[in-house]
Amino acid sequence: MHKGPEQTADFCQALLGEVEGMGDDAAVVVAPPFTSLQAAVGALDNSAVVVYAQNVHWEREGAYTGEISVEMLQAHGIAGAIVGHSERRQYFCETDETTARRAHAALEAGLGVIACVGETLEEREAGETEAVLRRQVETIAAAVPSPDRALRIAYEPVWAIGTGKTATPETAQDAHAFIRGLYPAEQILYGGSVKPENAEELLAQPDVDGALVGGASLDVESFAAICRTAARLSRS
């Protein structure tokens, strides 16, 4: 919940100046709040940077106050949506089932999807990481049984979000490899306190295909630095 329309437009214009020339080496996505989506689309028109929403509902319309449908996003030129983010699960009662329904609806309509999974600190300390990931991923797989190129899974270790803690590269790799063994997603992203300082060692892991960047994405220079690292590694 950062950046109104004017701030978003300024951010996107500055970001373009930082990431131009990357070509196909790395895909860059921004996901501002709903009220700033149109500003982002306008600022990024005719560029390679893509705009996603932070959420989307599974129904086309109805009595779902506060929700936004796939068609509403498409009418504004939005390319995709994040679903099941850890903060949506923690604060707004999102479940594995609602995450899967949102993902299915968006993919059916041709939107891209970043579907988030991950364990809490309590679950990790109880040795339940793999059981939690299996439940979350298999629920998504039941809704999207045939792997879709537009679906990306994002592993968010909840204990490493906004805490200053970061999963070691080995921990991230183990989780990503486990997820890939459950569901052959086109890409699996890592999200958990990704910063310019640790991006290279995380993104260099064989099963880490990209990053879902949190706080570091609010600053143009730090976000662009992560994007450049991803682009450089994809060429190596």
Structure description:
The chain has two domains: 1-53, no CATH class; 74-206 and 228-236, TIM Barrel (Alpha-Beta Barrel). 44% of the residues lie in helices and 11% in strands. It has ten helices and seven strands. It has helices spanning 5-19, 37-43, 70-75, 86-92, 96-108, 121-125, 129-143, 169-182, 199-203, 220-235; strands spanning 29-30, 50-53, 80-83, 112-117, 151-155, 187-190, 210-211. It has a seven-stranded parallel β-sheet with strand order 1-2-3-4-5-6-7.
Anisotropy-based shape = globular
Bin the helical content: 40-55%
Which CATH class of the largest domain? Answer: Alpha Beta
How much β-strand is present in the residues? 5-15%
List the helices and strands in order.
Answer: HEHEHEHHEHHEHEHEH
State the CATH topology of the largest domain. TIM Barrel
Model regions low in confidence, pLDDT < 50 over at least 5 residues: none
The structural domain count equals 2
**Radius of gyration in whole Å, from Cα?**
17 Å
The CATH superfamily of the largest domain appears as Aldolase class I
Order of strands across the main sheet: 1-2-3-4-5-6-7
Major beta-sheet overview: 7 strands, parallel
